[in-house]
Amino acid sequence: MKYINHKLIGLAVATALFTACVDEYECNLQVEKPEEVAGSEYLATFDVLKSYISRDANSPFKLTANLNPSDFTAHEVAYSTIINNFDGIDVGSTTYMPATSVNDQGAYDFGGMSTLADALAGTDVTAYGGTLASYQGQRASYYAEQFEPTIIPYEPEKGRTVLFNFEADEIGTAYPMSGNSSAEVTTDPDDPNKKVLCVGRADEFASYSFAKLNVKLPEGRKLGDYVSLEFDMRVVDSHGIYGAGMKVYINGQEFNVGMNAATIGCNPNQWNRGAVIKMKDATAPGFVLPASLAELTEFELQVGTASGEAYYYLDNIYMNYEVAGTGTTVIDFEGDELGKTYPMTGNSSSVVENDPAGESGKVLHVGTESDPSSHSYPTFTLQLQPGRTLGDYTAIALDMYIINSQGIWGDGVRVIINGVEMNSGKGPGNFGCPDNAWGRGTVYIPFGTENGNGSVMIPEELKGLTEITLAIGAGSGAWHGYIDNITLYWKMDDTIIEKTPEEKADILTADMNAWIGGMMDAGGEAVTMWNIIGEPLSQTQDANTFNFGEYLGGDVEFARTAVAMARDTAAVPVQLFVSQTFEQTDDMASKADQLTTLVNSYEEDGETVIDGYNILLHTVYSKDATIQASNESKITALFTRLKEADKPVRISDLSVCVENTDGTLIQAGQVSTDDRINAGKYLSFIMQEYRRIIDAANQYGISLSGMNESSSANKLCPWTSGWNRNLFYEGVVNGLK
């Protein structure tokens, strides 16, 4: 047979060649560039495809092809090809999927299906709808978001405690001073009806001397609950407005807040109302209240400006509390007998003794002058707060007293929990501990996301512990000193309300109903055949895979739910198919058995009805004769199994690729004439086996994967990219005869 090529020049081409190109329909191609057309004259002798279909008036058989609905509604070449050659279109199983059909507002967009339904009105073109339910093509990330627990942040208890406003005091009431001068209640210089406290006098300024204010907190409150100190201050002229800065003393312990009276907001002879000093934040103006003072309910407070000539008024002294569900677990040695020893992780010793500074009762003496601790740490067994785990704890702190600089730097304070050693990366000196004096609350180690920079990271495997073995100390080859008030801080978690299984099921069924109902409404009366379940045997796991059955009672209940929704929302009677892809490499007979067994399980309730099978068939013509014989036997076995199921069967997405003897696929543009003819014969064989084996009443049609091929793709199609028939067209014709 001789094959020749032709140039297509639109409507001027001869009738025979025109038929080979566009199958007697009105074409929008005005001029087409020269293109290789194999056997144009021979191919022009064939009629349009649907003329070859052998069927009676009652046959359900439909010849369709995959086509994006937008190409159909465009009324161009693809539309005309469908109208003249096919009974309808198959929108494909992946054209409309939940994962790709969401508008900017997050709602499903069914506009494409609605437009298609409108375009089908008034035509005899049928449309096979897309997939209504599947584990694939889903909004998996959206469902994960919907399943996230409701988190109710812990709301801290907040309030204010009025310490002093002096209104109940008599004029002239004196408060003790820490040094010289005086502090007396007097009238407000701006309002004689109010009382304030005057610190210092014109004839004797307060020289680094402060009023002593004895505080007793309300029942249930302790000093550690408070986050700030608030007061009104009025400096007389400029006496003490600068000086050495504002100071706070609690039980004699000094805190420098980092600002003077001027920078905290005072101006000469004017009230600075509501000056605030933070008590849990060292950022000026502020300081960090040490753990050793946190439990106090009564204490002596001093606040004012440190100056050699201070003279000022105070009023409305408050403290603001914020109880954020926090607490501490403390080791303070006060309950221990003097001389009690604690085990060490290595050398040296640790013994309970009296505080050498006489400040805080009992402390732990670690190491000795002659035998300092060498990377060895005292060890404690600690029961955590009831109801709390180690994961609830946020930090650890301790007081340290370094003797003669031994261990003041080293290579980092260590925290060891159940044998897991963590290095804060900072020595006692880096934390601010002095030499031969107490550093109260200076070593504060947050539990962070890494070890170092003053923090340690608690490993995940330790966070569930309720009792721990704790060791802590200076990482040094020669550490000698005292420790006290080892304090672990915990915080109450936010309230986390997990979604119940019932709530998750409700979320999914509502979304399924929105998708299925929306698709059915959009298809209206024009689309009456659908894939109700898509790819039930798929093992694909990707970003768009979501297992509905895990939440809806299993795969079977998922399918039954989908079927019920579809039938309830359909405007007209619909036919619902289960769709599954079969690859040439599959054991097709075994896979068909799995599919039919699964469908039977759907219907065991006596209510669910599956109308048929939609088989997406991806085949390969092999140039290896032995392999090709096996390929053909698989096709026969597949249809034999499906016949036994006694349900309607559609073959859809039907494609043929050509495979070399080495197993590699050949691009369509590189397929030889002989190979194309043989691939067409294989297509004919597949179609004829379907017509031969499947009962005529159950032959619901064949749908081609595509109409025109891309030379760089692998699958063959009846038309070229320029809409010329090629030799594969003959394979379709012979398959239909």
Question: Care to describe what's here?
Answer:
The structure is a single chain. The chain has 737 residues and is of the alpha+beta class. The chain contains 14 helices and 32 strands. Strand 17 (350-354) and strand 18 (362-366) form a beta hairpin. Helix 5 packs parallel to helix 8 (501-523) and helix 11 runs parallel beside helix 12. The two termini are 22 Å apart. The relative contact order is 0.12. Residues 1-19 and 24-38 have low confidence and may be disordered.
Quote the CATH topology of the domain at 328-496: Jelly Rolls
* Structural class by SSE content: alpha+beta
Tell me the strand order in the biggest sheet. Answer: 1-2-3-27-28-29-30-32
The level of helicity is: 10-25%
Name the features:
Jelly Rolls; 28% strand; alpha+beta; elongated; eight-stranded parallel barrel; 737 residues
Q: What's the helix and strand layout?
A:
Layout: H1 15-22, H2 40-43, E1 63-66, H3 69-73, H4 77-85, E2 88-90, H5 111-120, E3 126-131, H6 140-146, E4 150-152, E5 157-164, E6 174-175, E7 183-188, E8 191-199, E9 213-216, E10 226-235, E11 246-250, E12 253-256, E13 271-278, E14 298-305, E15 312-323, E16 326-331, E17 350-354, E18 362-366, E19 379-383, E20 393-402, E21 413-417, E22 420-423, H7 428-431, E23 438-446, E24 467-474, E25 481-491, E26 495-497, H8 501-523, E27 527-534, H9 549-552, H10 555-569, E28 575-583, H11 588-602, E29 612-622, H12 625-645, E30 649-659, E31 665-666, H13 673-693, E32 699-704, H14 728-736
Parallel strand pairs: 1-2, 1-32, 2-3, 3-27, 27-28, 28-29, 29-30, 30-32
Antiparallel strand pairs: 4-26, 5-15, 6-7, 7-8, 8-15, 9-14, 10-13, 10-15, 11-12, 11-14, 16-25, 17-18, 18-25, 19-24, 20-23, 20-25, 21-22, 21-24, 30-31
Helix pairs in contact: 5-8, 8-10, 11-12, 12-13, 13-14
